[in-house]
From TrEMBL:
Keyword ATP-binding: no
GO molecular function: penicillin binding; peptidoglycan L,D-transpeptidase activity
Family matches, as PANTHER family: PEPTIDOGLYCAN D,D-TRANSPEPTIDASE, PEPTIDOGLYCAN D,D-TRANSPEPTIDASE MRDA
Keyword hit for Lipid biosynthesis: no
Main location: membrane
Record's keyword terms, sorted: Cell membrane, Cell shape, Cell wall biogenesis/degradation, Membrane, Peptidoglycan synthesis, Transmembrane, Transmembrane helix
Name of the protein in its database record: Penicillin-binding protein
Source organism of the structure: Brevibacillus panacihumi W25
GO BP term (any one): regulation of cell shape
Amino acid sequence: MEEEKKQKPTIPIRLNILFVIVFLFFATIILRLAYVQLVEGEQYRHELEKFSIRELPIPAPRGRILDKNGVVLVSNKPVYTVQYVEEQGQDIDEEKVADRLAQILVPDDSKIGTDKELLKKTIELRSTLPVGFKREETNALKEKIIPMLTRLPDVNQVAGMKDFDLVKTAMYAGLRVRSPFTEKERTDVVKKLNAYSEANGSDITYDDVNDWEIFKQAFKANLPMKLTLDKEDREDLIKEVQAQLRQLPTPAQLNGKSDMDLLRLASLFDLDITLPLTDEQRLHQWHKLSLLQEMRSPQLASYIPRRVKVNITQEEMFQIEERRTELPGISVELEAVRQIMPDPDGTGFATHILGYINAIPPQSLKEYMAQGYNAIDRVGITGLEAYYERYLRGKDGIMDVHVNKNSESVEKTMRQPAQPGNDLVLALDWRFQSRVEAILKEEVEKYKKLPSTPKEYNKTHVLVMNPNTGEILAMASYPDYDLNLYYDRKKFNENYSSLILPNELNDFIYTPYPPASTYKPLSLMISLQEGLTNPSETIYDSGGYYVGTAYKRNWRAGGHGSVNARRALQVSNNTYMYIMADRLLKKSSPWQNQFRILDYYNAQFGLGVKTGIDLPGEKKGWENPYLNYGNLADAFIGQYDLFTPMQIGQYVSTIANGGYRIRPHLVKEIRRGTTDPKEPGQTLSVIEPEVLNRVTIDPKHLQVVKEGMRMVTQPGGTASRDFVGLPFNVAAKSGTAQTGRKAENALLVGFAPYENPQLVFVVVAPNSLRDGTSSSAATGPVSRRLLEAYNELNPGVLTAPPVQTPAQSAK
């Protein structure tokens, strides 16, 4: 027992020793922390301020676009770009920097706005103008402003105003009201405004104009109108108007205002003003403001560099370097922009195929940033650049930039290198695309000089595709333009109105045209499939036919006499089609139901539905509503519904390949992007032919149609002169579309060789015909020459014996 008592104190002693040690350890740490914080804290704070790290994205090279043989069509070209970044700790006078830059950089825009617009832009950017009015000019400006101030009510009267008077006061005070109308009130005012506009000889309509502009225009026109504000909007507007009235000076207080203050008031009241500037000074101010706007981009964090101007000259770069100390925040960096291979003649190449990239549109910014984009990134806007954006876009790298307290770069560390985007390999051969463009240019210019050519004629479209795979072999319009213009702002502005704007729309997928007689092959197939006739039945054409109470005329006065199915296509007989339409209408009742049959077959051949082409924004054409009995007869000769050239190409391909609707596509392969442009990347994806559907037309009826189209190019056919002497047989169908204007559209479609179709062509020449001119005059030479060019570049393809195709293997 005594031994146990002696051993007990040992554990408490050890614990006490441990507690003392722990206490001393933490006391030491606390004392050290106190010393660091209280004694050395200021020194460490200064050391911390000396250095900081910025995380900057390293733009990834965008993927290239190549032709089927590996020829690079779109690549990346390094250019000098002026960038601006507001570094921490720097107090930069951005307006002064923009002013100095405007003295160095050549302005991109040759056009300048009015003085009123210049003033509004200046105020919007919180900038100033170097103006100095003479005394009489200052007094004149005051005289304009005083009536604007005196018509404003006392601030205490605002709360008791009716809604209309409150909105009117807001307008007088230079404010903007978001939505002062109910839907019914808006509709009523718009109707009155449109009527007022028409009565005054103007073609301006207000259906899509914002509510505030509608109010101002209606008020200006003194039109009666009602408006109703909901309670919350009214209360907010009262507060806003009261605050504005308190800020505005009285007429007596104008004497103490500077010229710039007076100009701000003039802009607030939307007054017309004349600035005391020379033309040279105006141009400089517009240039300065455009640069300042880029420098103050609100969508970017302050440490993210902003592009001020892309693709500057070496002379501009040297001047910036010489004046670097006067331009804080400004640097010149190398940046890649897209470079499109031009045609050998220096004109544009594959304009509506390749597309272009640009800054992210404001309305899409949130969507792109949610996908990991930076606000400064450029994205595909049109063409393949837009459709394949997610493949062409690379993965940005990350660089850690160590900067000191003066925002000077001390060290750069690459954390993650950029990964290039994937390459697209197209199905087309650039040589054939280029030849088609050259042929188109020559033939259009030649045709325009003929005395019989309508003055409205100015363009033609050509589409060439493989009917068995859906591959687009060429797609060209003339006139077109060089896509490189999008990457040279000065040249873009110089050419926008005259060249780019009239030809910017991709008519192949956006613009529908009446198919005219090129639709008759489908009308014949429907007639045979629905049992309305048979290939051997002969009808007599005396020049027209009554469909209901309407007499429909054949295009040839006096008619074609005896006509059967094949000959109806050969001579493009209207009367035969009228009779078939009439039989379909009488097949069952009500007759209105028969229109659905047409829509059913249209969709099977790709008409009135999207083709699936790998281009953004494809339209599905326009199928007009069938309002009366005779509309079906018009549709049977291709004079009612409207279809795009791409839809017509898919329709003809479906005939050529034996009844398989195949999705058209431009891209053949997607390959992994490489840093070495000479080394092709790994193939990631191969675009295989995709059969969308098989038509429900009996193959023997398809064969009758193909035979009829072959007869079109034989003696007696409407295109008999166009393909004489070629070493292969061509099947075709011409068309002349009435447009309701003086000039008519010409179309020519076909495939070759007839026995084993490898190529389908579509030629559309809007507004090219007048006074009964044959459609072949505008489309025949182009069609023949493109076939010759393809045969020359691909010897044996159009003359080879039949082989099984992807479409045929699907049977």
